[in-house]
């Protein structure tokens, strides 16, 4: 199920939560939040992301038997039927948990299920729709966090574009993990990363985003992702691509920390950074790609 990736999905929820005004009051005594709703949303993203990862392996079983025989289904550790049951149960957990918050969150989770299945079954094989659908999955996950305050989604829906562009860049280069990639794809992915990094500070002109509070998180984010993706843009070898993809997936948390800090202050930004630490630790123990 790739725990490091699932952990990064928690940061999507926290960033959306922060942007939607899920923080009820910020005082010196701490943060007052709606813990039950946030807890259900974190459980929802666990189920939705986990189900998507499992079904990705179900539909890729034949290809993985040739390219990645160590994965659970090709190696015989679990059957395709067993994996399908597991994935369905995870999806059910995700949807039911989201409906515990409110109907908007519930129906948004249903949309995310269809997006992940569309990606797993067909879209990922397209150089255009693959990156687009994967980005929409993560963008939808961010809006799922914002759904704790449904009326806010209409004001911050454009945040969807940041994970769409960022994850799209990762998905674009990930096609070369096994046998190397395209220099064109590498350059395009690097340009997309730059667009995200330069676009985040521009939020200050649109909404109540404090760019100075977010700046340290933005610098950290840039330092983590730019060198690896620049290397791939000039030398798209399989080893460099795999490293860039791993760094990119984990650093999605840092992008979310920029959003969280900018909208709700440094404390929430640091909380999201805690998710980053968790993803780093688990990435040493489990596969990311």
Describe this structure in words.
This protein is an all-alpha fold and 289 residues long. The protein has a single domain, classed as UbiA prenyltransferase (Tetracycline Repressor, domain 2), CATH 1.10.357. 73% of the residues lie in helices and 2% in strands. It has helices spanning 3-19, 35-59, 61-67, 80-99, 103-121, 129-146, 153-156, 161-174, 183-199, 211-234, 238-264, 266-283, and strands spanning 25-27, 30-32. It has a two-stranded antiparallel ribbon. It is globular and about 50 Å long.
For this entry, give a set of tags.
289 residues; Tetracycline Repressor, domain 2; 12 helices; two-stranded antiparallel ribbon
Choose one word for the global shape: globular
Range of strand content: under 5%
Please name the fourth-level CATH homologous superfamily.
UbiA prenyltransferase
Question: How many separate domains?
Answer: 1
Q: Which strand order does the major sheet show?
A: 1-2
* Beginning-to-end CA distance, first to last residue: 11 Å
Task: Please specify the SSE layout and strand pairing.
Layout: H1 3-19, E1 25-27, E2 30-32, H2 35-59, H3 61-67, H4 80-99, H5 103-121, H6 129-146, H7 153-156, H8 161-174, H9 183-199, H10 211-234, H11 238-264, H12 266-283
Antiparallel strand pairs: 1-2
